Structure formats: structure tokens, C-alpha cells
Amino acid sequence: MNAKKSGAVRIAILFSGRGSNMQTLANHIADPQVNAEFVLAITNRPAAGGIDICEKLDVPCRVIDHKKYDSRAAFDAELDAALRAAKVDLICCAGFMRLLTADFVNGWPDRLLNIHPSLLPKYKGLRTHQRALDAGDKTHGCSVHYMRPEMDDGPVVVQKTVPVRDGDTPDSLAARVIEQEHIAYPEALDMVLKKMADN
Ligand code: GAR
What we know:
This protein has a domain at 1-108: Rossmann fold (3-Layer(aba) Sandwich), CATH 3.40.50.170. Helix 2 links the parallel strand 2 and strand 3. It is of the alpha/beta class. The model has no long low-confidence stretch (mean pLDDT 97). The protein is built from 6 helices and 7 strands, in the order βαβαβαβαβαββα. It has a 7-stranded mixed sheet, with helices on both faces. Helix 1 (20-29) packs parallel to helix 2, helix 1 packs parallel to helix 6 (170-198) and helix 5 (128-134) crosses helix 6. Bound molecules: glycinamide ribonucleotide (GAR). Glycinamide ribonucleotide is lined by residues 15, 17-21, 94-95, 115-117, 152, 178, 181. The site of glycinamide ribonucleotide has 14 residues, from helix 1, strand 5 and helix 6.
């Protein structure tokens, strides 16, 4: 599944929950045409569902429990050390629900991607589906973006939109958005890999 590819971009995926975006990225990276290798997963939550996915994929998964660190800087320093020890080239946040310090983010210029369940710059932060419904939006969606020190900020690589339907709930809308997330992230990854190869 996680075949070694020589000269491939070494990718780490950070997650906090069930890991469906991580699974989708892993499936994509497994394609021999994709010049990337999924070398490390890191979660900040010891009970995250995505840990089982890593076991099945046979990808090393580090649990770095943020509750064991007394500051964001200390947690981020450990994260940074793990990523550098694994010689990671590109980090994909996939449902990683921790704010990262500016020092950490600035240490990975254009090497840090995130997926967010809204059409950024709308609805940074949490409860994005509820907020889109409350605002009466007719369209909603997701964004893959390069990360910058401000939360959910940075140049957008790919956005996908979905219709908001009468009677939608946050859950029904989330289900429509996550389908698009699973299309958007592999597409964005291809674009970023191409850009890295061209530079
Ligand atoms: C996804 O909807 C992702 O966009 C969101 O968490 C979910 C993770 O699902 N991320 C954020 O809200 C980040 N601000 P997954 O664990 O199944 O990939």
C-alpha cells in the first residue's frame, strides 16, 4: 500500500479525528503516478479514529498529546522535531484541530497545507456548516489552502462548492461538503506537487 518511491516528496499528515481526508490522501499518494510518499502521520489525540487507518496503511503514527505540554510552543517544538527527524518535505493538515504557533508555521514556508470546511475567507474557525445555514447562504463548500500564521488564513489552492438545500441541517450539509473535500484535497496536492517540481 505505502510503496517506497525514490526521489518522492515526503508527506506527513496531521489529524485529530476520524481521518477520512487522511485516508483519501493516502489512497491518492499510493498511485504510482503521484510523486509522493506518505511517510508519517501525527495526531494530537490518543483516541483519534484515524490511528486505526494508519495501522491498516502501515504508516508510522506518532501520538503527540497536546495535554502533556504546558505551552503551545513546547507542543509545536515536539511536532517540528518529529517532522524534521522524518525528513518531511510537505505537511498536510487533515482535520488537525490545533492552532499552530507563528514560529512553527513560518518554519514551513509553502510546505504546510490545510483543508477547511467553508469557502474561505468565509467562516474561519468552528461550526462552519451551522454558520452557513444561519446566514442563509445558497452555496457552501470547502477550501484547501497554504497555511499562514493567522487561523484558517493563506492562499487558496482549490475550492469546491455545494448547494445548500431547503431543510438542510449541519449534518446533511457536512455530508455534502465532505464528499467534495475528498475530491479537493487530492486535486490540491497534485497542484502543489507540480509547483514544487517546477521550482
Ligand atoms: C473535515 O471536515 C475538515 O475539513 C475539518 O475537520 C474535518 C475532519 O474530518 N477541518 C477543520 O475544521 C479545520 N479547521 P476527517 O477527520 O474525516 O478528515
